[in-house]
Amino acid sequence: MRLLISACLLGLPCRYDGTSKPLPDLPRLLALPLELVPFCPEQLGGLPTPRPPAERRGGGVRTRDGRNVTENYARGAEAALRLARLLHCRAALCKARSPACGCGAVYDGSFSGRLVPGDGVAADRLRAAGLVVCTEENWQAALPPLLQKEGEDCST
Predict the structure, then answer these.
(1) Could you tell me the residue range of the domain that residue 52 belongs to?
(2) Beta strand spans in 32-117 (E)
């Protein structure tokens, strides 16, 4: 099974501040029968690294200095979906709380650190297209059932 994975979780320095957030239990993920497909929706949407921090606000995404980057995030989400379809990915492991990749909770747009229920732009688009979307906080529960089903599909 192929898995989209936020590139920053693999240690690639593509986050807004030019750093990464390597998955703490990456060896456990690498031991699974998966092909990893790194992606960064912000970069796919044309944003540079580093870039100003951004948060979801209403239906859009704005940087701390007020610049509207919603179109970049939408473009990156569509590119991520095209990549997932091209490579037949069934799931995505995304960076928690990111305005692009967050799943279940994102920052509220006030740059105060407050979380609200919701998904990032790319996570929302991927989920709407039928992919299972999880984060580094819940992948260990979300991926094994998919892998088990994948094994069943291969044996029939």
Answers:
(1) 2-155
(2) 35-39, 54-57, 60-63, 91-94, 105-107, 115-117
AA letter at 81: L
Residue 130 CB contacts under 8 Å (≥ 6 apart), including other chains: none
Neighbouring residues of 83: CB distance < 8 A, sequence distance ≥ 6 = 4, 37, 39, 44, 89
C-alpha–C-alpha distance, residues 134 and 142, integer Å = 7
Q: What is the reported pLDDT for 149?
A: 82
- CA nearest 92: which of 44, 49, 46, 40? 40
Q: How far apart are CA 84 and CA 38, in angstroms?
A: 10
What's the pLDDT tens digit per position in 108-150? 999 999 999 999 999 999 999 999 999 999 999 999 998 888 7
Measured distance CA(50)–CA(61) in Å, rounded: 17
In which band, very low, low, confident or very high, does the pLDDT at 153 lie, cut at 50, 70 and 90? very low
Rounded to two decimals, the pTM is 0.93
Look at the chain and report how many structural domains it folds into. 1
